[in-house]
């Protein structure tokens, strides 16, 4: 097959259907930008949840040496081995407790590093500054108070925290937004696919004379279909590139500059450029393959050999 | 070259068959006229050979291949060994004469060098030497049909199928086209031509196959048109 011949056919086809091509590009761009946005949002939520969030309901933080000086709850010094044993046996006896995990300060340090990476706050910490803790999964998450009354104020215990209480509302909001984004994405995707099918159909119809002659002189099915499929793929790829542009611009203006959330909300570890870049190939590949497949199936119906 | 064995064709949603129990054979190098009134099944006959349709009953062999057993993706390969010419020429209006002929070679992946060599050659053969760069719209009907024949013949097919090639042409031009087809036939290419043109059939004195309401009613060597309508 001669590449130049095929390329010129693609160019002719795209220009002939300029409005339709534009519609395909816009709808692919919007749906894939939403797709990428929703992926990044889930990453962001996972990032903020940290290691324990989905695994436990209540955390009992134990005093360490530095707490002993600064925190009135830990006035009696760092937690001792006996105190830890006592807490553990008491927890085992409680019927509301499902499972208990003991996190040493080394593990805590590791999980903290995973969550906050190389932020200036993380690099200034050392493992023995981290608190040991018991991470408790309850049979009924509502029974947080039972643990709180039993262990709050006990010697060696710095605090008892209901894991969900603080951030649950925020996460629910983000999750809701995420699902809304996915729903809009799904609808945009359907629109994009229908536009592609229709564009290919119109394109095949307007070139039925050429394709009829191609069939007569014995062009293979692939040779006849390739220009149409590539037309769809090229339009899709342009849309995908625009979607990638949207994501990069959004990351730039919402997090780094413009809204500059990273400066205003320093406690939140925002998704980095690596997360954005990680999804760009996926978006480009989707933008190329999805319209190509749609065109392929549309042509099976409208361009019989 | 072509063999029909008890071929019937019924189109979906139609009760009257387009072809009924047709059996015949066309040998290599023959020149055959296919005659019959409109609706007699001539087009179906040709469409079966091109495998644009499949038979309802019976077998069609073309170039030694059973078309019923030819898988879809092999059909283009089979068609490359056939040339086809139609009443309405079917040229691409936005391509030059040379490009129209080259198109038949481009789509089957011939190299540019081959195309550059064979296009002027075949245009000379059909009597259009030097008109490579003209547009089809600038040519007369007879010339356009010559371009179509050049395109059908440029890949040197073993079988040339012509569906009323003179249907749109005046008698004098038609004679020219028939001389050309005869010349192509003399190179060894089998020619099967469906026609309504009584004068041509009577003059050429070639084999005549007549269809009537889907039935083969006459198969005559050196025949004449032979029926009035």
Describe the structure.
The complex is a heterodimer of chains A (305) and B (229). Chain A is α+β, with helices and mostly antiparallel strands. Chain A is 70% helix and 8% strand. A four-stranded antiparallel β-sheet of chain A has the order 2-3-1-4. A six-stranded mixed β-sheet of chain B has the order 6-7-8-3-9-10, with helices on both faces. In chain B, strand 4 and strand 5 (65-66) form a beta hairpin. Chain B is built from seven helices and ten strands. The longest helix of chain B has 16 residues, at 171-186. In chain B, helix 3 crosses helix 4 (112-125) and helix 4 crosses helix 5 (141-153). Chain B has a domain at 92-156. Classes of the chains: A alpha+beta (305), B alpha/beta (229). Chain B: It is a peripheral membrane protein. Chain B: Residues 2-228 form the ABC transporter domain. Chain B: One of its GO terms (molecular function) is ATP hydrolysis activity.
Q: Which characteristics define this entry?
A:
heterodimer; A: 305 residues; alpha+beta; 4-stranded antiparallel sheet; 4 strands; B: 229 residues; alpha/beta; 6-stranded mixed sheet; 7 helices; 10 strands; 32% helix; 24% strand; ABC3_permease_C (chain A); FtsX (chain A); FtsX_ECD (chain A)
In brief:
The complex is a heterodimer of chains A (305) and B (229). Chain A is of the alpha+beta class.
Spans of at least 5 consecutive residues with low confidence of chain A = none
Rg from Cα of chain B: 18 Å
State mean pLDDT of chain B (0 to 100 scale).
Answer: 92
Helical segment tally of chain A? Answer: 12
**Which secondary-structure class do the elements of chain A indicate?**
alpha+beta
Could you give the distance between the termini of chain B?
A: 31 Å
Question: Strand-residue fraction of chain B?
Answer: 15-25%
Helix content of chain A: 55-70%
N-to-C SSE series of chain A?
HHEHHEHHEHEHHHHH
Q: In total, how many beta strands of chain A?
A: 4
Oligomer: heterodimer
| Largest interface between protein chains, with number of residues from each side | A-B, 18 and 23 residues
Order of helices and strands of chain B: EEEHEEHEHHHEHEHEE
What's the helical proportion of residues of chain B? 25-40%
Strand order of the largest sheet of chain A: 2-3-1-4
Shape annotation of chain B: globular
Please tally the β strands of chain B and state the result.
Answer: 10
Which runs of chain B of at least 5 residues are low in confidence (pLDDT < 50)?
A: none
């Amino acid at each position: 097959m001669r590449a130049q011949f095929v390329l010129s056919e693609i160019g002719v086809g795209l220009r002939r259907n300029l409005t339709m091509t534009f519609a395909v590009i816009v709808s692919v761009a919007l749906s894939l930008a939403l797709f990428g946005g929703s992926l990044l949002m889930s990453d962001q939520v996972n990032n903020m949840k940290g290691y324990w969030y989905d695994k436990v309901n209540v955390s009992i933080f134990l005093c360490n040496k530095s707490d002993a000086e600064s925190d009135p709850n830990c006035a009696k010094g760092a937690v001792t081995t006996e105190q830890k044993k006592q807490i553990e046996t008491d927890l085992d006896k409680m019927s509301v407790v499902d499972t208990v995990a003991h996190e040493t300060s080394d593990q805590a340090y590791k999980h903290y590093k995973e969550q906050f990476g190389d932020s200036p706050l993380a690099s200034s910490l050392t493992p023995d500054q981290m608190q040991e803790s018991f991470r408790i999964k309850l049979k009924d998450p509502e029974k947080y108070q039972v643990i709180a009354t039993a262990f709050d104020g006990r010697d060696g215990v710095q605090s008892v925290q209901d894991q969900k209480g603080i951030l649950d509302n925020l996460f629910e909001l983000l999750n809701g937004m995420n699902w809304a984004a996915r729903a809009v994405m799904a609808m945009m995707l359907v629109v994009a696919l229908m536009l592609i099918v229709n564009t290919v159909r119109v394109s095949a119809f307007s070139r039925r004379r050429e394709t009829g002659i191609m069939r007569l002189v014995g062009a293979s099915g692939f040779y006849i279909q390739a220009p149409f499929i590539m037309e769809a793929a090229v339009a899709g790829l342009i849309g995908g590139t625009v979607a990638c542009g949207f994501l990069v611009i959004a990351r730039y203006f919402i997090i780094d500059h413009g809204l500059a959330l990273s400066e205003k909300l320093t406690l939140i570890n925002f998704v980095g450029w690596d997360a954005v870049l990680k999804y760009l190939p996926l978006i480009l590949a989707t933008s190329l393959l999805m319209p190509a497949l749609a065109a392929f199936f549309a042509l099976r119906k409208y361009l019989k050999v | 070259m072509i063999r029909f064995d008890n071929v019937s064709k019924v189109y979906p949603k139609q009760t009257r068959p387009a072809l009924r129990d047709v059996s015949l054979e066309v040998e290599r190098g023959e020149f055959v006229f296919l005659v019959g009134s409109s609706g007699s099944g001539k087009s179906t006959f040709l469409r079966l050979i091109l495998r644009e349709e499949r038979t309802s009953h019976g077998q069609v062999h073309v170039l030694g291949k059973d078309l019923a057993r030819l898988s879809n993706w092999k059909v283009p390969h089979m068609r490359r060994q056939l040339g086809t010419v139609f009443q309405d020429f079917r040229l691409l209006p936005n391509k030059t004469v040379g490009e129209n002929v080259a198109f038949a070679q481009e789509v089957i992946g011939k190299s540019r060098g081959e195309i550059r060599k064979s296009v002027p050659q075949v245009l000379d053969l059909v009597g259009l030497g030097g008109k490579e760069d003209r547009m089809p719209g600038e040519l007369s009907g007879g010339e356009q049909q010559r371009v179509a024949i050049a395109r059908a013949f440029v890949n040197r097919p073993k079988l040339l199928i012509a569906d009323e090639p003179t249907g749109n042409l005046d008698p004098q031009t038609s004679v020219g086209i028939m001389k050309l087809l005869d010349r192509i036939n003399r190179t060894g290419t089998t020619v099967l031509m469906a026609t309504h043109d009584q004068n041509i059939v009577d003059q050429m004195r070639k084999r005549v196959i007549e269809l009537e309401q889907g039935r083969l009613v006459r198969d005559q060597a050196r025949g004449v048109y032979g029926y009035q309508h």
